Amino acid sequence: MKLEHIESKFAAMGARLKVRAIPSRWQQGERHWLSPQDYAIDIQRDRHGEFFELRLPTHLAEVVDFSVLNVKPERQHLLLSARKLLDKPQTDRFLCGHDERHWFVAAVPGRVSNVADAMESLKPAEVQVAQAREGLNSRQRNRRRNAAFRRQGEWFFVPAPDLVVDPVRVLHNEPIRRGRGKPHLVQELSRVGGTKVYVCREFPNGLTEKEYQQYVRERPERARMGWRVMVRDAGVYARGTVRHSDHATITLPFWHRVLMNTETQTRTMANVAFLD
């Protein structure tokens, strides 16, 4: 791996990259070596501020090739590739960059090769249709606010000005979240359809009614785990303020369709659900 080359690309967009090798360890009772299963890319913080951390198990050091496919210093974004040199080679792609107040890493679906395509690939189909309908150019499409949508982090809000919602179905100060992430708080929210799920710290993506009943039947003591009934994969609409500690508050003057980016369509994010 050309880690020095990668570090220089991160530096070009104003970021720091640290690589941390994770050694295997000996399990005496089982008489064998334990190794971490895969690499990880994360955002960490030290006394100098935030930095990107690449955690790489030692047994993968020779079989995973990291490279930067494209870097846009002026946007503070780059596209990172991780290619596993196995019997069946596979390549993961990550968009790394700065959004509002913090650095971020987003798993990117598809076989994109540059930052612009990666950003488009992270937009759900409804967002792409909306921006095409509005005739937005490439610069307008990358703004957090334009005629087609508002964006806050991984969430897109597409205008639905003609939507009429029964006041009885309006929830106030409702959280929307992806997996274990910090929730975005929506002043007014309404759901249409979806699947009822039971959520707790151990199951942040939720269990369906059938899964929950079977789980607590087999482990009655787990019924007291602080479960919360939520809705997964619903048609979700928001109005009013949307707040999050990592982002500037946005205000939606009328109803907007709520859509999450497409990270969940990637292999590396396959266990993350649309959960609000």
Describe this protein with a few key phrases.
276 residues, 2 domains, 19 strands, mainly beta, globular, disordered C terminus, four-stranded antiparallel beta sheet, 5 helices, single chain, seven-stranded antiparallel beta sheet
- The main sheet orders its strands as 10-11-18-17-13-12-19
The class by helix and strand makeup works out as: mainly beta
- Main β sheet profile: 7 strands, antiparallel
Low-confidence stretches: 270-276
Number of strands: 19
Strand content: over 45%
Number of helical regions: 5
Mean pLDDT: 88
Secondary-structure element series: HEEEEEEEEEHHHEEEEEEHEEEE
Radius of gyration: 21 Å
Write the layout of secondary structure elements.
Elements: H1 3-12, E1 17-22, E2 25-27, E3 32-34, E4 40-46, E5 49-57, E6 64-72, E7 77-84, E8 90-99, E9 102-108, H2 115-121, H3 125-133, H4 138-141, E10 150-152, E11 155-159, E12 171-178, E13 184-192, E14 195-199, E15 207-208, H5 209-218, E16 228-232, E17 235-244, E18 247-260, E19 274-275
Parallel strand pairs: 1-5
Antiparallel strand pairs: 2-3, 4-5, 6-7, 7-8, 8-9, 10-11, 11-18, 12-13, 12-19, 13-17, 14-15, 14-16, 17-18
